[in-house]
Amino acid sequence: MEKAGGEGERSAATVVDGGEGDLFLSLRRLEISDNEKGFVELLSQLSPSSTPLSDADFRTRFAELAALGEDHVIVVAENPRTGKIVATGSVFVERKFLRGAGKVGHIEDVVVDAAARGYHLGQRVVRYLTDHAKAVGCYKVILDCTSDLRSFYGKCGFKEKDIQMTIYF
Amino acid sequence: MEKAGGEGERSAATVVDGGEGDLFLSLRRLEISDNEKGFVELLSQLSPSSTPLSDADFRTRFAELAALGEDHVIVVAENPRTGKIVATGSVFVERKFLRGAGKVGHIEDVVVDAAARGYHLGQRVVRYLTDHAKAVGCYKVILDCTSDLRSFYGKCGFKEKDIQMTIYF
């Protein structure tokens, strides 16, 4: 069950029904040990083309992103009973020349494990990333999503603005 | 007048009518001296909130982006007669964990000076950035735009996919 809710739970843990008792899920940043905790498998729920990464490949990518410091943040929620990552999302900060050398936060790869949906974990992930973008001085935060997620992101405070166009190589 | 056209002009210069004779405009990467050549003023045609940058602020941002190497490229076209930048666009490369640690190119801030439109400079800028994303191994390149630019980006090979949602702080 969702016990915490509304604005008051911004920094609180989400309490979920773990089957044998409540679980307290708090958000934290991705750690290098999370490759063993199903982080990449969770991403495969977002993009079926995702494949497991070797520990070496995971560590390489982790180090590349860590080198970006506060310009790239990945947040996760771990189920303490199973040791599995059940929600994640990322934000990277684009530095521009326009708007007085302004910065824009880009939210990417938000996903909640199918078995952990209904506890507002997605909203908490998005709020964490949005708060980060604001804290580091971005003048806006943006994301692209399918139109069926318009309502979800609307609840997170987003307004529809433009269209996204793509070339796949 | 546009003399070069079609696929054959991918790496050629654009020939424009400079009023007192043709001008040959080729694309190159942004240089640190371009703050004196109207680069930021050009961006103000894209975002009215853009303001001129001090030389110090320009150099700081330039260095931050240069440190990203091939993960952030800004291309410009300079009018050799006026010494002004008349077209630009940028692409940055996002490194992901999904898709086997895949990479995505994000095209941003494409603008052609109002007086230099009609010579396919915009298409050449977008093609330069798209080619870069492909060359560095991105599995796709994406951009957000207003719906009135759907046709322009369609000519550049893009297909509409998702919606963009935004929070302004």
Summarize this structure briefly:
The first copy, chain A, is of the alpha+beta class and 169 residues long. The first copy, chain A, contains 5 helices and 8 strands; from the N terminus they run E-E-E-H-H-E-E-H-E-H-E-H-E. In chain A, strand 6, helix 4 (121-135) and strand 7 (140-145) form a beta-alpha-beta unit.
Descriptive account of the structure:
The structure is a homodimer of 169-residue chains. Chain A is an alpha+beta fold and 169 residues long. Helices cover 25% and strands 34% of the residues of chain A. The first copy, chain A, has 5 helices and 8 strands. A 5-stranded mixed beta sheet of chain A has the order 3-4-5-6-7. Chain A has a two-stranded antiparallel ribbon with strand order 1-2. In chain A, strand 4 (72-79) and strand 5 (84-95) form a beta hairpin. The radius of gyration of chain A is 16 Å and the shape is globular. At the A-B interface, helix 1, helix 2, strand 5, helix 3 and strand 6 of A face helix 1, helix 2, strand 5, helix 3 and strand 6 of B. Strand 8 (159-168) of chain A pairs antiparallel with strand 8 (159-168) of chain B, so a sheet runs across the interface. Chains A, B: Residues 30-169 form the N-acetyltransferase domain. Chains A, B: Keywords: Acyltransferase, Endoplasmic reticulum, Membrane, Transferase. Chains A, B: Pathway: Nucleotide-sugar biosynthesis; UDP-N-acetyl-alpha-D-glucosamine biosynthesis; N-acetyl-alpha-D-glucosamine 1-phosphate from alpha-D-glucosamine 6-phosphate (route I): step 1/2.
